[in-house]
Design goal:
Blueprint lengths: L1 H20 L19 E6 L5 H16 L3 E6 L4 H13 L4 E4 L8 H9 L3 E5 L11 E5 L1 H16 L8 E6 L6 H20 L2 E2 L17 H15 L7 E4 L2 H13 L11 E2 L6 H9 L4 E4 L2 H16 L21 E4 L2 E4 L3 H6 L12
Parallel strand pairs: 1-2, 1-3, 3-4, 4-5, 5-11, 6-7, 6-8, 8-9
Antiparallel strand pairs: 10-12
Helix pairs in contact: 2-10, 3-4, 5-6, 7-8
This protein binds beta-D-glucopyranose.
The site of beta-D-glucopyranose has 10 residues, from loops.
Length: 367
């Protein structure tokens, strides 16, 4: 009887303990049992919920860290720098050992990351580099220069520029000035396209060719649309646009709306060659229907895997795996980085790349 009572008490205790584990964050209390990760707090600060990819990034990070037994504090900052700063401050106060940050403005986190450093918290820059601080320990991203190159080469190939064809009219729509990735996307693409502009095979009728002139604040779809509306009215009343280099999918959607309002997407005025990046659902649908030519697929599952490996290594006192120690100078130091490989996706390969890999279901892509 005594043994039975002891057993009951032990069972009750374990039920109570399990109930205490998760709170509002994401401790699994399960598979990581006994592992060094069990219950260790990790902060994940994502820039916004307003773009599909960051929701996926957040969800992947949450589930992969939880699988390992970590206690995850995932926050989205709705593209407001002040919110991101206060969310990171909270993560430090709550005792997070590692904070993973997808920065809104990579240049605005220096003082909050100084606090992290003083508290012994390790920081991993997620997808976007964090600038002007030595408090960022590692960086995991895709080869951002490679993303731009893929976009530039797609335009080069579709227009037959290598074969000397042209002249064609091109316009450019890129990302905001405060996202370091945009520097690389723009440079990667323009390194391919600029020689054709110089030779006159590509003509930018608006004359807007610098990153500043082609920037889209916050990667905002409506702002990209507004700018393209103006460019079309001013420069293409009697000329046809043949290609638009768009650095990502939200910018691409804005550009597509402007083009459709200006009478494109018809038999005598087909859509220009239009690029994108992220393979977001509306964009993959636009690729299938022929309104967008391509996107760059960056498998967010693979990025999350890599970052979780970095977290594990940092917490067990090992050196995280990196494959680039030259490219990402944040103004204070070169941040050791792991770069994943981006891939182009278009009408011909989307099934294999996006459906067969389980990234999307066929039903997700039905109009
Ligand atoms: C990311 C892109 C994304 C863009 C807008 C960039 O920093 O690398 O994948 O499309 O931000 O959120």
């Amino acid at each position: 009887m005594k043994k039975f009572l002891v057993l009951c008490l032990a069972l009750m205790m374990s039920v109570v303990m399990a109930g205490c584990g998760g709170s509002s964050s994401g401790s699994s209390g399960g598979s990581g049992s006994g592992a060094p990760s069990k219950g260790v707090k990790i902060g994940v600060s994502m820039p916004t919920k307003s773009l599909q990819r960051w929701n996926q990034d957040g969800a992947n990070m949450m589930s992969k860290l939880k699988e390992k037994g970590y206690d995850v504090d995932l926050q989205f900052a709705e593209n407001k720098v002040e919110s991101q700063v206060s969310q990171i401050e909270n993560m430090i106060t709550k005792g997070c050992k590692v904070i993973v940050v997808g920065a809104i403005d990579g240049g605005s986190l220096s003082s909050v990351l100084d606090e992290a450093k003083s508290a012994g918290v390790k920081v991993i820059a997620y997808d976007r580099l964090i600038m002007n601080t030595d408090a960022v320990n590692y960086y995991a991203t895709f080869d951002n220069y490679g993303v731009g190159q893929i976009q530039g080469q797609y335009i080069e190939q579709k227009l037959g520029l290598k074969e000397g064809k042209g002249p064609f009219n091109l316009e450019i729509a890129t990302g905001p000035m405060d996202d370091n990735n945009a520097v690389f996307f723009f440079k990667g693409a323009m390194d391919v396209l600029q020689p054709y502009v110089d030779k006159g095979q590509l003509v930018v009728r608006s004359g807007q060719v610098t990153r500043e002139q082609c920037a889209t604040p916050n990667w905002d779809e409506a702002k990209a649309q507004e700018r393209m509306d103006n460019l079309l009215t001013t420069n293409y009343a009697s000329a046809k646009l043949d290609a638009v280099l768009c650095s990502n999918d939200s910018v691409s959607l804005g550009v597509q709306s402007a083009l459709k309002s200006a009478g494109y997407n018809t038999a005598d005025k087909p859509m220009p060659v239009i690029t994108g990046q992220d393979a977001n659902l509306p964009n993959v649908k636009a690729i299938i229907s022929g309104e967008q030519s391509m996107s760059v697929f960056k498998d967010t599952r693979a990025l999350a895997d890599q970052v979780v490996k970095m977290v594990d290594a940092l917490l067990s006192g090992k050196e995280p795996e990196v494959n680039d120690t030259k490219t990402y100078n944040n103004g204070v130091k070169i941040v050791p980085s792991y770069l994943l490989k981006p891939q182009f996706v278009d009408k011909d390969n989307y099934k294999q790349l996006l459906i067969d890999s389980g990234y999307y279901k066929e039903a997700d892509l039905q109009k």
